Amino acid sequence: MSDMFDAKIALFHRHADSRDEALKMLAEEFMKSGVAKETFFDGILNREKVFPTGLTLNNMCVAIPHTDPEHVNRTQIGFMSLDTPVEFIEMGSDDTKIQVTMLFMLALKEAHQQMDMLMKLMDVFQNDELMERFKAVDNYEEYMGLIKEAGLDLEG
Amino acid sequence: MKRILLCCATGVATSTVVHKRVEEELKKRGYANQFTITQCKVAEVPGQSPNYDLCVSTINMDAKNCACPLVIATNLIINRMTEPIYNEIEEKLFKSE
After folding, report:
1. Which residue in A58, A66, A116 has the most chain B C-beta atoms within 10 A of its own C-beta, making it the best mutation to test that interface?
2. Predicted ipTM?
3. 3-state secondary structure (DSSP) of residue A153
4. Which CATH number fits the domain A10-149, given the four candidates 3.30.530.20, 2.30.300.10, 3.40.640.10, 3.40.930.10?
5. pLDDT in tens, A103-122
6. CB B20 to CB A119 under 8 A?
7. What is the C-alpha to C-alpha distance for residues B19 and B5, in angstroms, rounded to an integer?
8. Does residue B80 contact residue B65 with C-beta atoms inside 8 Å?
């Protein structure tokens, strides 16, 4: 079992012209680091088109793009914040458009294994103050500090 | 023993979160040891659902594709307005006979 953040996939205050461009920027980091296979981006994009992953929180919208385990080598979480939002569709809807400013991309190898971490992540999404700090963070050290503070640095 | 099928798009992420929430809530409501939960992909629901008492889905799906009673539970992912969903699950699983 390894750390879900050790590939250090975190991009701060980026700009993307579209959802697909944002997904590509982040997914490429997963593929470059070997955490995910070369099919990962296509898997992410196809899933997002059929079953969108946007979530509306209290003060902002985020997305949790992920795809089938067959595109993944090992479990890992990647982060990207955007200075200008991109449009996602809300999870569970067919056409509710939301403006997403942060992506928490998940490379998940199997079910159950990461249950505690996923539960914690959903709790963090309900913590408005912490989410504002995730949005503001601009360097890796500070980001990992937030991950630890949020209790997300669990063994995978 | 009641059998719950819990589905999401990939069968690994949001269904994992909702699996835990449903399990804890049903235990809290006094149904410990009276149910089992199995996760699957939404694409597997048409084939799997005849063997289950209830399907809980984290994503929108057509009830026509599900052979057992269905509850859409998207709000359970981020723990928002959960009470009506838990009530519906309890109702369809334990109070429908």
Report:
1. A66
2. 0.78
3. coil
4. 3.40.930.10
5. 999 999 876 667 788 888 99
6. yes
7. 9
8. no
